[in-house]
Amino acid sequence: MYPESLVNLISINNDVLWGVILIMGHLVSTTLALAIFSSILLKNKKNGLLFLILLIVMGVLTLYRVMSYSIALGLIIGFMYIMLCFVTFISLKKKMTMKKQL
Fold this sequence. Notes:
Keywords: Membrane, Transmembrane, Transmembrane helix. The chain has 102 residues and is an all-alpha fold.
C-alpha cells in the first residue's frame, strides 16, 4: 500500500524522527520560557531572578534526562540552551539600556 521507505520514516521505532520532535518541542518551549522570563525581569527584578532559578533547575533536570536517553541529543539541547541564553542576555541588555535612557 505505502512504499517501504515511507513506512520506516513514519514508524514509531524511528529514533531520528523522535529526536527531531524532541528538539523542536524543546526549542519552542525554551524560547517561550525565556520570553516570559525577560518580561518578568523587566517588571520586577526579584521575581525575574526567582523565575530564572526555576528555569535553571528545570533545564538541568531536563538535560540530565535527555543525556541518559542520548548523548548527542543532550549536547544539541545544551548548545541550544547556551545560544538562547546568549540571545536573551543581549536582548535584555539592549532593553534595559533603552529603559534607562527614557
